[in-house]
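Page 42, continued from yesterday. The earlier attempt failed because a stray header line got pasted into the input along with the sequence. Redoing it now with the clean sequence only.
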Amino acid sequence: MADAFKNVIAQSLECPVCLNTFTDPKILSCSHTYCKACLNNLLECVHGNDQMLRCPVCRAETQVLNQDVSKLPTNLALKSLIEDVKNQHQFCTNCKSEDKPQAVVYCQDCGMYLCITCHNAHSLWQNFISHEVLAISEIVSGKVSVRRYRKCKKHPKEDEECFCSDCRRFACFRCVVMQHKDEGHRVIEAAAYESSHMKSVEDLKSKADKKRSFLQKYVDFIDEQKERVSNVQTQCTDDINKAYEESVRQLTEQKDILIVQVKVRTEGVEKELDEMKKSAQEHITHLTNIADVVTNRTKIPFDMNALAAHDNLRQDLQEALKQEDPDYKQPMQSSKKGKIVTFMRKNGMDELTLGNIVNSVAKSIALPTSKGSINAMVSTPDGRMAVGHLTGGVEIVSADGQIQQTVLKHVWICGIGILSDGRYVILDGPTNIKLYTLEYTKLNVVFESLSVDEGEFATLTVDADDQIYVSYCKTQKIQVFSPAGGQAVRVIPCVGYVPLKITNYNDNLIIASGDTIRLIDKQGVVKYESAKLGFFLFAAVSQWNTILIANVKHDLGLVSIDEYTNELKHVQNLVNDYKIEKPELSWYSLHQYRSGEIALCTPDILYIFH
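This time it went through. Structure tokens are written below.
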């Protein structure tokens, strides 16, 4: 009975998590006890900085301040009992004498503690050679634990060799017969359950290893992305330093040149003034010397030679006195040439700067139409903007972004132009040209344009003489019509490029073809071109009769707008890498209001740059 009682005590001293004898036992608020190390491991499994620890047995929560398990109360009674058990000697359970010797091993298969004599005899039996024998010293130290056979609490002489899956508990054979014989109780051998349990644990461990490997790959991927960002930072820093050094070098050169220019322009004036000063000072000296000679004589000369000399000196003095007074206008005129030399600090693109990371000021207007429908835009004679939609309608938008009117609501707008008398020229569908009055009434004018099969789709523009130019992508040509309709009066070939968008410019046309802008005359001869690989380019005419070109990085949703001369030479940057909402379609239009604002429309949104 004493041995059975010891077994019960030994089982009660095991931690439910690690299944070893408790070490530094800590009590949760639910009264369950666990090793401090086990609670630390459980707390590490909690995400974030949550201070609530859930009991593995009853799932009740215990608050752990600052996630410090050591602050939980210690189970002093259990800790003392563990120390007492460790300090007690385990006696041989095989010897029959009352004065039992001390045990040195425990046989897992026999479930018995053996002294040295019994252990030697046990080792000689052929059937016992394969038994698992544990040294008492290792059991006491906690290196191993006795797990195989538990003694039944109701029947201390019986081993709990069975396991009821429904009750989730081990039981001896007698308990199975008495308590677990009802229908529905699934009873299996404890060894089979242990084997199944260990296999389940191994499967979970395998899955956890795979999950951990997957998460580690994710962490490695994050590190890789972080390294790329770090490389970008390093590269940008190097580029900024190089740009700074290059800019300093260029500024130094410009400073030296400007200083030389100032010196050249002012030194000439200074030389002129010095010569005037020298002449005046020589006259002063001459006048002073003669006056001194003449006026310092106290005796009247009677000698003829002396008299002649004195008369000549007086005459020289008189002549010197007759010389005109100095003219202040002459040095003033010379100084003006120097005083007008001014250093004016230039602003804008002509000023050498390292460059700034900025967002251009713009107003975005989501027009009340279906997404992706904006397809054309043109400035109106009264200084507003007319925006056409594939789904139908033209919206009139002011420079401050106010939608003031919607017209032609049932017309499919693929292109739009305005004649000098205010009539609208509309591409109603891909290639059909229609004419509308000021009151937006359709005129009975027929234009013999190409069909959709022939031209695929078209764009149009109107020149100052009210000639209508319609470009076709498929046939790569431009038809020219008069407002009277009928057949095209002439055809302009587009050799080697596709006229995606056309814009009238004085006696020329501006053709946008993907990454290239071409300036052609109205016979089709290419005069100038500008290309930018990787960009979509769209052109417009500014209010100062220069050319505006929008450079669109469609994949990144970035827009830059630059000003060019009539020879497509760069003048200045107006908008730099402005972030737009990236549309699905890469179809844009560019125009400028009469008041100076620049309008850029994507298929979804109208942007007005101030």
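Notes: Residues 69 and 553 are 56 Å apart (CA to CA).
Reminder to self: strip header lines before submitting.
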